[in-house]
Amino acid sequence: MLAHVRYVADPAGGDPIAFLIEVLRQPGTWLAFGGGLVVLGVLIALVRVQRPLADNWSRFADRAWTYRAFVPWMLRLSAGLVLIGAGITGRAFAPDTTIAGWPTLLLTAIGFLLLLGFAVRVAAVAGLGLYAVALAMEPHLVEILDVAGALGAIAFLGPGVPSLDDLARAAFPSAPGARLATRGRPEARYEDVVPLLVRLGLGGAFLASGIVDKLLVPGQALATVERYGLTALVPVDAALWVVGAAAVETALGLAIVLGLFTRPAAILGFAVLTATLFGLPDDPVVAHVGLFGLSSVLVVLGPGRWSLDRRVGLSQPARPG
Q1: Is 160 part of any domain?
Q2: Long-range contact list for 179-184, CB < 8 A, 24+ apart?
Q3: pTM for the whole thing?
Q4: Tens of pLDDT along 130-173?
Q5: Contact 311/305 with Cβ under 8 angstroms?
Q6: 91: β partners
Q7: Residue 22 sits in which domain range?
Q8: What total number of domains does the chain contain?
Q9: Is 319 within the bounds of a domain?
Q10: Which of 85, 153, 199, 306 has the fewest other C-beta atoms within 10 Å?
């Protein structure tokens, strides 16, 4: 259920306000959410006061930071695979939006350029332009903000290594545009701009999935619960399933956008996406590749300088290494 329900259920309407009011009238809803908030509050207090495994977590974060050289490659894989999958299957970024003709070829070409690491900045900017056009025509593509976040970070960072751009510059150092195509960014940008772009993309996608894909289309979400028998997995009312799933995704998205408990939120998001692959077998894997990739990037980079984690002391500046 923690996924894009529109990919696995037929379109269905329903009044979202009436649905939410009806769910909130049920005593079980308040009991479930109250219990969840108590558990969450206890965990946060434990982390802040007792700081269990603090040294282990610090070593984990320091080691993850040493993988930052691979971030451009991770971003290229995240966006490139999604675009190739969309182009080959005739979809406009999302599996439920059909296109045909030259846009499919363009999406496929951009995806392969990103994977190969050739003309990366041009390809990323072109991909962002296509996404902006598609979003204007199909507003529900806001659920694919992870791809936009990845493309924005790629355009900013450049190809990185390994990439054909880097190899081409080594072979033809005097070629026009070689230096511009491969020029990287100062390491400080991995501490501010890049984490922010990734957080906005990943967190925005989770927020949209929770709100746009579930609360605004309750009929479709309820159909998904019924289709996969999710109430047998967790024996609660189907409507509570929908609201609970929406609440989890919205909370994850908000935490990531604000940069609060960023690495744990990214790890939890990765776990949720993995569980989705087993729980909803019809949900296309390619739709979540960008989410998997950006979650991994946040584990490597952490929240960055412009985050609540840094503001309240939950994260320290990265150590050189």
Answers
A1: yes
A2: 181/119, 181/120, 181/121, 182/158, 183/158, 184/157, 184/158, 184/160
A3: 0.91
A4: 999 999 999 989 999 999 999 999 999 999 999 999 998 888 88
A5: no
A6: 98
A7: 5-40+192-312
A8: 2
A9: no
A10: 306
